Amino acid sequence: MSKIYKYSYCSIAATAAKDDGAGCFRDRDPLLDLPVQIDFSSIAADPPERAPMGKVAKDERRITIEGTYYMQWERTWFFEIGFSPLIDRAWVVQERLLAPRVLHFANTQLYWECNELRACESYPNEMPQEQYTKVDYKTIFPFSEGVKQNISDLQEEGQRKLNFGAWGVIVQGYSQAKLTQEGDKLIAISAIAREMKLLMQCKYLAGHWETDLVRQLGWPGYDISSRPTTYRAPSWSWASVDGRNQFWYKMYSYDIYHALAEVSATHIDLAGEDEMGPVTGGYLDILSQLFELEIREKSEEEKRHSPRRSGQPILIQGQATAIRFHQDGPESRLDGPLYFMPLSLSINTEYEDLEVNGLALQRFCQQDMYRRVGSVESGIGYKLLRDDLILKILGEIEWGENFEFTRNSSNMKTIRIV
To answer: What is the model's pTM?
Structure first.
């Protein structure tokens, strides 16, 4: 089916349809739904303190607003495409990306989307950029013909960053879309994964890539995700949970990055012969430190000063730290001891922004066999202080013009995460 979309000339999308019986066409009032022309032919002799919106010519005494203007709803793409019933379906993500051209029948007008142009009846020449949405959604993907040429001119590191950036946007959009059958999580994105593999040139691991795997493992659930009843991926894969996953944009966003873990072995049990298809099991063998983790109650001061901060406060090795535990979902049972495995230490030198990222694990069945139950990090909008306990546990940091970090090698062990 993926080849049908990939090699089609144009896909017609009933974007505003709530189901297959709604069709493409809607009743509309052009005076309300399309731009309204307004003609100004007067000059304001006493201009107000704040100039009106639009192109305004101003001299010392007066403001000229003569001319023709068009009044249009703001963020039309955001609401008409981004929040449409069709785009909310997970299977549509790869159908939309693989098709070279898409004609959207939206609620109030037609929209055009291809690798070079986004347009609509209100903006027939080109859509303007809009806040909180990616109007140029199709143009950023490296398997688009127009982007492939630009990638070939980049160095290897630049190509890798661009590829992971594109994959991150795909995962973010796909993970918040809905599936009728929860077991289709890896199937419904397999066609895009197959296209991306030609660029990644490494093994595909249940929604992740073997290259830079440690960077990918710290995705957060932010306490809003949930684990399905049907097994569909190992616990370390984002595909094992339902909920928006927007971690990937941070993968290369720091000036200094220190990996605190090393993957020594990977294994995936495929349900069939398709590497990008459904899986029945899998594991990672990882060498890293492992510390006892205990969830604690919020103090009265924390409740007063940061009542909306995400995550739960924790103790590492019995001592308080500012990093938080973010549970993958309420379905993750937290009986028995929990453990913290650090994955990375990242620093943005310009803003002195420190980030420790790691996994919350639970041991089960056999010794040194673990499953992921959450992530551990500072959380959105919060910074670690230099004297935080977790930094002392991880190693020695020398601050100054040349930042230096010496890793603490105690408590290192290889464990298996399934």
So the answer is: 0.86
- Rounded alpha-carbon distances, angstroms, from residue 295 to 327, 341, 342, 388, 389: 11, 15, 16, 17, 16
Compute the distance between CA of residue 377 and CA of residue 326 in angstroms, rounded to an integer.
8
Token pair for residue 281?
């099991």
Q: How confident is residue 51, by pLDDT bands cut at 50, 70 and 90?
A: very low
CA torsion, ordered 363, 368, 371, 372, to nearest 10 deg: 90
How many CB atoms sit inside 10 A of residue 292's CB?
A: 13
| Backbone CA torsion sign across 199, 203, 206, 208 | negative
Judge whether 376 and 293 are in contact, CB under 8 Å. Answer: yes
Q: Quick one: CA torsion of 64, 66, 68, 73, rounded to 10 degrees?
A: 40
Range of lowest pLDDT (89-103, 135-149, 152-166): 135-149
The number of CA neighbours under 13 Å toward the Cβ of 301 is 1
Tokens at 76, concatenated: 């039309």
Q: Which of 376, 373, 374 is nearest to 390 (CA)?
A: 376
The CA distance from 133 to 131, in Å, is 6
CB atoms < 10 A from the CB of 99, how many? 22
